[in-house]
Design a protein that fits this description.
Elements: E1 3-7, H1 24-35, E2 40-42, H2 71-76, H3 82-87, H4 99-115, H5 123-131, H6 136-148, H7 159-162, H8 166-175, H9 177-203, E3 207-212, H10 221-225, E4 240-244, E5 254-259, H11 263-268, H12 272-284, E6 287-290, E7 298-303, E8 313-316, H13 320-330, E9 334-337, H14 345-354, E10 358-361, E11 386-389, H15 398-404, H16 407-417, H17 424-437, E12 442-446, H18 447-450, H19 480-492, H20 501-515
Parallel strand pairs: 1-2, 1-12, 2-3, 3-6, 6-9, 10-11, 11-12
Antiparallel strand pairs: 4-5, 4-7, 7-8
């Protein structure tokens, strides 16, 4: 089935109170996608973010971001008043997220909602705790204890609780009982709201593509509560960390700092943790995009505490064995393999052996120094089992890229699309059309690229801090005219959802009623 969708992070949705969330604007965006003839809404990871605000560095691989809880929904529940929300200071710029201000204001108002909630009488809350027992308590305890130690990472806590000694756990559970309950409440409300939004999307024919990082953050409940899953020494310090080797873009490589998995241990447990993780993802999303897929074939291991990534080495990962196991557990769950970057023959073989569609990014296709037609990212070379993108969250916007690439590359783009090198918007429009026309199974376009926005609307610039994960769309930009334009190109190249005859009759009846 040929289909298409739009990439837009939850935090980039429009709306009041400082950040995009599961508010009425999220439901309106689903309606927009339906009107635009789309089949997918691709989002970024939903986890609670840590220092740097990256959704790829989270305090838990299972928890959800409390920022996404709708304050308007809490008002409807009677847990807050509109006055409570209006007097909170979430920053002054609607088009950008002020995370510092958000951190100060959001938790204060969420705490008020928690105190107004009678959790003891909520049977659904008790059921949620039981169903999520394998992670919810570890996470809530972690966050409460982290707050107690002035937000320091767990490796800076007192030794007894850092090493999870039973008497220390008992002491903090008693001392911080209310704070722990607060974090349990946040997760309950997050999951409840997300499931309602996802159900609404699914009923509208929109499927959610979720995104999961391959690694977890060292500063996380996952590592604190389950150190045996990672390559750590007896004091909990990493033996090695993740990253990328030096290349033309990063002369000393990229030092991500995430702890490396102890894959031998995971194998002994029959990949129990990965099974739990992917099963939870299959509940949250309709399709799962796994970031940095090549790390399952070989991962780059950097000795800790190296200051750069120059002295790392490639080490074999679990390979196809992990995915054979996951396929048995997950059945027909759809997975997209993010295989971007320098890809070896063994990585290509792993992707092929899984059968998962891989990713094609058109911004990687044009290099005047290599004019050969064998470039895998040129749309005419796409196979069917792939997902075509103009760019990802890590790329420049399409307009920003076209305005910044070398003249020789720009001329190559113009020649390829038969367009005007002096008109970036025309080139962007033609590239989007070519991706829709390609044989790729799915075509996903970031909203900024449909809006022809420049790099001021870029989501993330890798290896930088301070100006990422902030862009938000305005309510006026997500309109009927844009939906009509997107639907036109979607229909032209056979990517509209297949509608049954019964659905067509129902739609025709609804239109007739509107006319009358």
């Amino acid at each position: 089935m040929r289909a298409s969708g739009v990439l837009l992070p939850i935090f980039s949705l429009p709306g009041k109170y400082g950040i995009g969330c599961f508010s009425k604007e999220a439901y309106r965006f689903v309606d927009f996608l339906e009107l635009a003839g789309q089949s997918f809404w691709q989002i970024l990871p939903l986890g609670p973010t840590s220092y740097g605000d990256s959704p790829y560095q989270s305090f838990s691989t299972f928890a959800g971001n409390p920022y996404f809880i709708s304050l308007e929904e809490l008002v409807e529940q009677g847990l807050l008043t509109e006055a409570d929300c209006e007097k909170a200071d979430f920053g002054n710029v609607d088009a950008s997220i002020d995370y510092g201000q958000l951190y100060q204001a959001r938790f204060e108002i969420l705490k008020k909602a928690f105190k107004n909630k009678n959790l003891d009488a909520d049977e659904e809350y008790k059921k949620f705790l039981t169903e999520n027992d394998f992670w919810i308590h570890d996470y809530s305890e972690y966050m409460a204890i982290k707050n107690h130690f002035q937000d320091q990472s767990w490796n800076a806590w007192d030794e007894d609780i850092r090493l999870r000694k039973p008497e220390a756990l008992s002491k903090y559970r008693e001392k911080l009982a209310e704070e722990i309950s607060f974090y349990c409440f946040l997760q309950y409300e997050f999951y409840r709201e997300w499931k309602e939004l996802k159900q609404y999307a699914n009923e509208k024919g929109i499927r959610i593509i979720g995104d999961i990082p391959i690694y977890v953050s060292y500063d996380s409940a996952d590592v604190w509560a389950n150190p045996e899953l990672f390559q750590l020494d007896q004091n909990g310090e990493p033996v090695a960390v993740a990253g990328c080797p030096p290349d033309g873009f990063a002369p000393t490589g990229q030092l991500w700092g995430n702890p490396i998995y102890d894959w031998d241990y995971h194998k002994k447990t029959n990949y129990e943790w990965w099974t739990l993780r992917m099963t939870k993802c299959a509940e949250l999303y309709d399709v799962i995009r796994i970031d940095h897929f090549r790390g399952f074939d070989q991962f780059y291991s950097i000795p800790y505490p190296a200051k750069t990534a120059e002295k790392g080495k490639w080490v074999d990962g679990p390979g196809i064995e992990l995915f054979h196991h996951l396929d048995q557990v997950l059945g027909d769950a759809e997975i997209i393999a993010e295989d971007l970057g320098f890809i070896t023959k063994t990585v290509k073989k792993l992707v092929a052996d899984t059968g998962y569609p891989n990713m094609k990014v058109v911004e990687f296709a044009f290099d005047a120094r290599d004019t050969g037609s064998a470039n895998d990212y040129l749309p005419h070379n796409y196979g069917e089992n792939c997902v075509a993108y103009t760019g990802t969250h890590d790329n420049e916007t399409l307009m920003g890229w076209l305005k910044g690439i070398p003249k020789e590359d720009l001329l190559l783009v113009a020649e390829y699309v038969d367009g005007d090198a002096m008109d970036a918007e025309d080139l962007a429009r033609r590239l989007i059309r070519i991706l829709h026309a390609s044989s790729a199974k799915y075509c996903i376009i970031p909203l900024q690229d449909y809006l022809y926005l420049d790099n001021r609307s870029r989501i993330n610039t890798p290896s930088t801090l301070g100006n990422n994960w902030k862009w938000r769309a305005s309510e006026s930009e997500i309109n009927g005219a844009l939906a009509k334009r997107i639907r036109k190109v979607t229909q032209l190249f056979g990517r509209l959802p297949v509608i049954s005859s019964a659905e067509e009759e129902e739609e025709a009846s609804e239109e007739k009623d509107k006319e009358e």
